[in-house]
Amino acid sequence: MNVPVFIDISLEEQAEELRAYFKSKGANISEKRSELGLEDDLKKIIEVCDTCFTVATESEVEGILNGIVSMSLVTVESRDGLILSFCEKLSKAPTNQLGLVCLKVLWSLFMSLEDNSTMRFHVYYYLVGVAGRTQMLNTVYKDMALTKNMFNKAPPSSEQMQQLYRLLHEMLLLNGKSDDAGRVMIELLGTYTTENASQAKEEAQRCIIASLADPNTFLLDHILQLKPVKFLEGQLIHQLLTIFVREQLEAYIKFYQTNKDFVDGLGLKHEDNLRKMRLLSFMQMAENRSEISFNEIRQAMQLNENEVEEFLIDVIKTRLVRAKISQGDGVVYVSSTMHRTFGPGDWQQLHSLLLGWKSNLNSVKEHLAHIASTQVELMHKKN
């Protein structure tokens, strides 16, 4: 372990000095060492360590807290309870500046723990909370893959990961990272099974609403496959998601006319929903078409004639469809488009395409080998 030690005296003397310091600052603690030993000393010190938040400078707070870190890591075998209590105290720093100090101390504690220590997860959980509340989440979280790798040698339980996902989702939203928050929510829902999917009913609904409301999220079929989302089948929220995954603009308009209060009650804006459904409907229209007339687009998307070109520009900006607009011909020429869904038939088509490429590459390889062999023979004949 790389443990920081800040005071060049015995651990018992450190405990005595810390007791005396906190006592002098008005904390409810005795100056005398505990008869039960160093572990009890640390327990009592941690119970009052937040006193320094109100009576010391930021640099003094950091030194005091780092001293507690070094003592608890070096000397105590049954340290888990002490570490949890210490983290809980640091998570309640009363100001943003003190929160940043506690963030540094928690990071030092996290990096000092052995890779196979189960406490790494618990300290990281507190790190995420403090970093999120101080708008410094990017210092401790990059993506889920890196986060999972942190715990390879001491994997958390499924329930613990669910707790972490919930906290990450909350903190990512607090830090203005809605896209990352959405990905974390999908990770969270993916941890549930058929047996416990009902426990995530509210989270599944929040995931659906956030995905529908996000103006940059268009591919939604993977959400339908999540167990907690499947548990919502038959409910209006699931019907609405299914429309955005598979149906056309007309189906959404009909649903909204029948369930206006429900959609508005979700906090979704009808105009934004119309925009997204028009884009999704056009994607599907363009899947097997190389050109589409303005008139057909106007009718299918329920647009005025002067709105068609602006709509097509919006489509191209999303990069969901690659196309060229020919205003003179009143036609849009489609070169490629994303698919709204990717089912078994699409996988089979991709499989066939890859097999064709493999066969063609083998033919090219054989042809090149034949050419090379012929060249070698010609060279031998010349010699």
Question: How does this model look, in words?
Answer:
- The longest helix has 39 residues, at 344-382.
- The protein has 20 helices and 3 strands.
- The protein is mainly alpha-helical and 383 residues long.
Topology:
Elements: H1 11-24, H2 38-48, H3 52-55, H4 58-75, H5 80-90, H6 96-112, H7 119-133, H8 144-149, H9 158-174, H10 178-189, H11 201-213, H12 221-224, H13 227-230, H14 236-246, H15 249-258, H16 260-265, H17 270-286, E1 291-293, H18 294-301, H19 308-318, E2 321-326, E3 331-337, H20 344-382
Antiparallel strand pairs: 1-3, 2-3
* Protein structure class: mainly alpha
Straight-line distance between termini: 70 Å
* Share of residues in strands: under 5%
Give the overall form. Answer: extended
The number of distinct helices, counting runs of at least 4 residues, comes to 20
Poorly predicted residue ranges:
1-7
Provide the descriptors you would attach to this structure in a database record.
disordered N terminus; 383 residues; mainly alpha; single chain; three-stranded antiparallel sheet; 20 helices
Summarize, please.
The protein has 383 residues and is mainly α. It is built from 20 helices and 3 strands.
